[in-house]
Amino acid sequence: MAETIKLQFNIDGNNFVDAGAASGKVKKTLTQLGFDPAVIRRAAIAMYEGEINMVIHADGGVADVYIDSDKIRIVLSDKGPGIADVELAMKEGYSTASQEARDLGFGAGMGLPNMKNYTDEMTVNSKVGVGTTVEMIINC
Amino acid sequence: MKQTYFHSVTLDKEKCMGCTNCIRRCPTEAIRVRDGKARIIKERCIDCGECIRVCPYHAKQALTDPFSSIEKFKYKIALPAPALYGQFHNVRDINVILNGLKEIGFDDVYEVARAAEIVTIATMDLLMQKKLEMPVISTACPAILRLIRVRFPSLIKNLLPLNAPMDLAAKLARRRAIEKKGIPPEDIGVFFISPCPAKVTTLHEPLGEDTSPVDGVIAISEVYKKLAPILGSLKPKEKLVRAGLKGVNWCHSGGEAKALSKDAYLAVDGIDNVISVLESLEDNQISHVEFVEACACAGGCVGGPLTVENGYAARARIEQISKKLTSYETERELPQIDLEDVLISKPIEYVPILKLDDDRAVAMQKMQEMKAIEERLPKLDCGSCGAPSCKALAEDVVRGFGREIDCIHNLRSKVNELVREISELEM
Ligand SMILES: Nc1ncnc2c1ncn2[C@@H]1O[C@H](COP(=O)(O)OP(=O)(O)O)[C@@H](O)[C@H]1O
Ligand code: SF4
Ligand code: SF4
Ligand SMILES: [Mg+2]
Prior knowledge:
The complex is a heterodimer. By secondary structure, chain A is of the alpha+beta class. In chain A, about 35% of the residues lie in helices and about 30% in strands. Chain A is built from five helices and five strands, in the order βααββαααββ. In chain A, strands 1-2-3-5-4 form a five-stranded antiparallel beta sheet, covered by helices on one side. In chain A, helix 2 (about 35-60) packs antiparallel against helix 5. Chain B is of the alpha/beta class. Chain B has three domains: about 1-65, Alpha-Beta Plaits; about 65-340, no CATH class; about 360-425, 3-methyladenine DNA Glycosylase II, Chain A, domain 3 (Orthogonal Bundle). Chain B has helices at about 50-55, 95-105, 110-130, 140-150, 165-180, 195-205, 220-230, 245-250, 255-260, 270-280, 310-320, 330-335, 340, 360-375, 390-400, 410-425, and strands at about 10, 30-35, 35-40, 60, 75-80, 110, 135, 190-195, 215-220, 265-270, 290-295. In chain B, the strands form four sheets. A four-stranded parallel beta sheet of chain B has the order 6-5-8-9, with helices on both faces. Chain B has a three-stranded parallel beta sheet with strand order 7-11-10. A two-stranded antiparallel sheet of chain B has the order 1-4.
């Protein structure tokens, strides 16, 4: 068993333009490791949506990516406002995004549903006023 | 089939000063400077021509065919790219240019712009049949096609499965010469008049086909030398213009997409811009477009490295002289062309050149090593080691074509250490 590869990214809460940078780096790493393009794309989409959520809803956070030969685990943690009703937040189209974020084209309410769809497992742990941790696993 | 990795862009060793200007401009990190000279890692190069543009010593060149190579054939057909139309400051009529091609030695002319119009109609057909994966990505620019093949494999399914206009033009021109003029196939030589080094590669290593229907690729700049002196006073003998405005507009970015008469398109040009759009497409960030046209060159093919005129000036000129064109001729010819003629015959396949090793466990081990080496490098991305970044040097080391000591900063500290040790010995 090869040792797990760990990547860590600090996601800046004020930077819409740079959002997606971490996703790009994860893609490159997975490509170098020879993962299947379809798997890479799923990881990229899940990672990007998670990154964006931390930027627009939580003022940034940290993304940890753990790569094993048969599994990719993405853990996104922030110290943002938290999510009061996770089940509601998971509904397609549900969004509390600000007008500013909507003007920039975010806030379609499809982020969490997509993250769930593109990964094999997803758990959301959130506490209002404390923060949110989203863990996603892609088996490959 | 064995991968041969022919590519058009090569280095003239004599001219290269090892200045490292090119290494960071290359979008696939294909260039290294070793022993004072640049080297192109063949399997990585997509022939985008960026290094040709940036080299201050003109040491990067595109391998194209000399004009004299047309003499190998009895019946010579020219396939002018529409970008050619914008090169001449004293010409106001496309027909003059096409007649000029016959004047300088070609027996027949088939405009690539005309084939482009047929590709447009075939694309519309496929879009209507809803057989394509959305959004559809154009395959007209071979540099982008090669980029996607090595770096964006998840987007391969979105590629338009049609021949590029050059290849279609070659097929149709050849067929016309055989069927209408009774020329024996072996006598026919089909030559693309090209703004583009990547098209040369397509000829030697076709994508989507087993063999290329093109016999040679001659640079626009080479043909220019012959044409420019005679066009000013040339009186056209026949009407050779058949392509319409929509086809001619393929010469610049947005032309192909606009010809489809769809609102939901995206046209991007310049290799860095294209890469950022492809990254976004891969992350599902772009959902409102049906068609993506991507050109490696700024401004599209008019900005190709084998042209003479500034790309933007050429575009302006083409816009002025192509206003009167219509597309009736293409429509008349169309019933004789099947979708089959335009479809590619071989799927485009992923070439995983970025992979560190075929064995996942070994690749992971190399990745760990790479990260450890990267930690030890100064993160200055200075290029003095000949690699485009510290990260790239770390990768070279684990791939076995670089050494940590190639880093002059590391070397310097090693030397300082040695000096200290020696002076301690002497005391
Ligand atoms: N990291 C987070 N911190 C706080 N709230 C979040 C976070 N991620 C998601 N949410 C909440 O869940 C809702 C739905 O998220 P999502 O499906 O990504 O849609 P969108 O981001 O378009 O609003 C958001 O509008 C927000 O209220
Ligand atoms: S042509 Fe493009 S891909 Fe090839 S070496 Fe030059 S810059 Fe790199
Ligand atoms: S934009 Fe045109 S000239 Fe430039 S690489 Fe692509 S096809 Fe060739
Ligand atoms: Mg979201």
